Amino acid sequence: MLLHMAARSLLSRRASVLLTLFTLALSTALLLGIEQIRSQSKAGFFNTVTGTDLIVGARSGPVQLLLYSVFHIGSATSNIRWSSYIELRDDPRVAWTIPLSLGDSHRGYRVIGTSNSMFEHYRYGEGNSLQLAAGEPLNDLFSVVLGAEVARALNYQLNDSLVIAHGTGNTSFMQHDNMPFHVSGILKPTGTPLDRALLVTLEGLEAIHLGWRAGIPLPGAQATPEQARQRDLTPRQLTAALVGLNSRMQAFHLQRELNSKQTDPLTAVMPGVALQELWQVVRLAEKALLAVSAAALLIGLCGMLAVLLSGMQQRRHEIAVLRALGASPMRISALLLLETLLLAVLGLLLGLALLWGGMYLLQQPLLEQFGLHISLTWPSAQQMWLAAIIIGLGVCSGLIPALLAYRMALVNSLGQRH
Amino acid sequence: MNPLIDIQQLAFAWPGEAPVLKIDQLQLERGEHLFIQGASGSGKSTLLNLLGGVLTGFAGEIRVDGHALSQLSARQRDRLRADRMGVLFQQFNLLPYLSLEDNVSLPCTLSKQRQAAAIARSGSVAAEANRLLQRLGLDPQQYSKRSAAKLSIGQQQRVAAARALIGSPALLIADEPTSALDKHNRDLFMQLLMEELQQADITLLLVSHDPALARYFSRTLKLEGNS
Fold this sequence. Notes:
The structure holds two protein chains of two kinds. By secondary structure, chain A is of the alpha+beta class. Chain A has two domains: about 1-45 and about 280-410, no CATH class; about 55-270, no CATH class. Helix content of chain A is about 50%, strand content about 15%. Chain A starts with a helix and ends in a 9-residue tail after the last helix. The model of chain A has no long low-confidence stretch (mean pLDDT about 85). Chain B is of the alpha/beta class. Chain B is about 40% helix and about 20% strand. Chain B starts with a strand and ends in a 5-residue tail after the last strand.
């Protein structure tokens, strides 16, 4: 009955109650949504590269090396010598290596020179390897495997041919149009930067740069694809390499060895450590977002309190009636507290509905536009906590009108003429 | 059988003020109807608040249905009011967001005893609520699901009377229940109320400044006030 009365009372004030509910729901959805995006983008971030023990590049900062080798952001200032790479590859402690050569692009997407060991050894998420949605890995000097987003956005099919542009700008004036590549495979979406990349062979990259010096083509020195196939296409240098070791234990040792190498100035980083370091930078923004949404929730609760308190004067006679009927002051304040609790719970549920509805609608656009993979999941432990905190705060703010009602109920008079 | 209301040497004063109420002895038998007439300030509302158990700090003793009010805790006094008393105010008796039926049934949700009495009488609380509405001239077919906010004051007072009567409380205390009504509605209200009281054998204690109500009562007490 108490519940029935609380519900009827709320219903009778539906205009202001609905507005309150909506503010609560919005701020709840905002807070929980930001928590969701935060935790999932964090997980996605740390899952970009897994199973790799060391990332090796030319001498630079660990974060910079991570940014250009894994996230394809920025560019390397110098390269690794091929001989250093061979030495590393043949080191008995090393199980596998994935060579990476960056610097060219295709219509704004990065082109990565690598080898088929990429398909064999690259791991992301919880140990997932790269899967092809169609076609096969690199099978020819001029074959290219497209990331899922590249294929979708540029609408490429298997065996389409495309031309690689020199440099990484969106519109490059220098095209390697004498040697077109054909699509041999298309990757399944991974939620990693590889979705926005084109994979080619190291030799293919070497071929299209035949007759180039210092980033410009020498007049008359260009080769045809047929000529290129005859030439020695062993790369002279490499941007970076991902390294897997036979034993994780050796990572520290090898890292120190590489970092102090006399013949070639190298930097070796452990991905986990570098990711952690990079995340420190992102974390500030993450914290700020969370703080803003927490503030939104507080505003929502204050709004609810304002509505409840402004209704208290009108409810004076309601309280008097309940008193006359023998309801104890405790019971009357319980009724008001129940109303607030009802509001908070409804607000939370509506907020969750909004959140899930919103995520359902935004899932695809977010993945396509930002490469942000958000999955519809049951609330995480953190979100459960937040929900509990929201309800707790709701009840706390409900204590104020309840206390007011208690004091009104103690007025020692039946009726309300005083 | 002892009287339903037994007041002995009652005196009440607000702290630091002259006493507003003094009654040496007043007894009310079961089923008796007492009209207490007095101008404002004569202490008649104070008497009702004392009887209702919301006001304490009096000298002397008040017994309601055998319970000495000075001996009861606040919770017990609330319980006594819920179980044994119907209360009628001048106006604003109803909860505007509940239907008439829910308004009338309200005492039965706060008192098991009255719920049991209502069920014993009509089979269910809702049926008893509708029976009382019918008795007080509000056709349940037409009114019982209607919101209380949409009634005239005269109709509202009749709904309030139905609520005060549901579950057959031993005592009905009414504070100027007709003062917001015009003469016609006042008489209609009093007639319906008295009929139902007689039938259910409920004791009534009504205070008003309006001497015209005296004709409905066998017993009248005039409060002069001590100020």
